[in-house]
């Protein structure tokens, strides 16, 4: 092995190159800069690393001062999953809203503008889009992150998103291969399993990934899911049959394969992150994502040493590790030469425009039509029926319509209600009664998120509507439950702009 000028041998350097770690703080810690000098080639950013666009640009400049070709990755889907605007909510609706509009040019424009903003801050790899077909409405982790439950719709919008994002000079990372939509388990907590035939997988789950590959996606992220029809023994992230046999050989993909976060319980709880990382690289992955929860030098060193040790023990071919590192460097070269549009070509309001188009507004039977709805002129009471936060989304990102209604109708009052303890029906009735008492004589705007997945939420709405049939319902998740309320507004996502679009309907404020 050749010893480099930095004093780091080629094997150790390659082991560092395939890692995509996170860190804490809004400036790069000394340990991270030191590892960049030793061969680390990628860094993952999360909401905890971002305070403002200017600060983010300064942070990425700090990283590039140490290594000018570093890949700076982020999990910025827009919609519910945002890191750029983690404290305010996203200026862009998510995939489900774009799928509801079903205008591929609009999806391309939104992705391009999102990519332009990322590029202007120095980010060049986005762990997006989600290409998962949300075929199981109980899905606790995908939901509105998917373009929808229709395979062809998901495929055409995945392709449009990839081309839009990459036209701004930011590499797309299409996820979660081979498809995380048909699950009722969150892989952050446990290992999901998809029990369908290989034929169903080929026709449904794989179609959006084929479209992404045809569109030139620069990266694909693996899913921590067990798919017995493809590999009965190992989850996709650790399966050579899936990553090499299916993705590489059958689908002809030759770009970067990135793992989902290795600290997620689906992998860490069974294999441990060190063993899991070795198995992932051996299976065909090229980059190990770690750092959503584990973000320190000790983790990086543990993974580096696990990979080096596996090569020296004959458990991981050195050529496979070198190939993986070469793919990371190849993506870095692409990112270094990709064009960066200096100005927006779609306008800063493209996200709000898309959110407005995504709304589905329904009036209750016997109460006229949405066209005859009389907008509120007095400040209402906003009852947010709040589920437990999805880990991918995080609980620090605000959602709902309260802030936008307060802006449009000063004096609006809001309260948050959750399931609490005990049977869900009783908890829901209790939440409904509490909201009624808090509202007093004010008109109620009830805000829900995936009513169909939460029996307590449905019970709370039952209580509200029985007492106050003039209640307005805003559904900010997947609108699977039947519309109800004097007016029902489905936003197809909980981004800030989705809340703004709904508030405009409630108050009758014309679009900007």
- Indicate the low-confidence ranges by residue numbers: 1-6
Task: Give the radius of gyration.
Answer: 23 Å
* Portion in strands: 5-15%
Average pLDDT figure: 91
Shape, per Cα inertia axes: globular
Helical element count?
18
Number of β-strand runs: 14
Instruction: Report how far the terminal alpha carbons are from each other.
Output: 63 Å
Question: What structural category characterises the helix and strand content?
Answer: alpha/beta
The spatial strand order of the largest sheet comes to 2-3-4-5-6-7
Can you describe what's shown?
This protein is of the alpha/beta class and 512 residues long. Helix content is 40%, strand content 11%. The protein is built from 18 helices and 14 strands. The chain has helices spanning 10-17, 30-38, 53-66, 95-101, 104-120, 151-166, 198-205, 207-214, 240-250, 265-268, 273-283, 297-312, 318-337, 350-358, 402-408, 424-439, 455-467, 496-507; strands at 19-21, 42-45, 71-74, 125-126, 171-177, 219-222, 256-258, 288-290, 360-363, 381-385, 413-417, 444-448, 472-475, 487-490. A 6-stranded parallel beta sheet has the order 2-3-4-5-6-7. A 6-stranded mixed beta sheet has the order 9-14-13-12-10-11, sandwiched between helices. Helix 11 (273-283) crosses helix 12 (297-312). The radius of gyration is 23 Å and the shape is globular. Mean pLDDT is 91; it is low at 1-6.
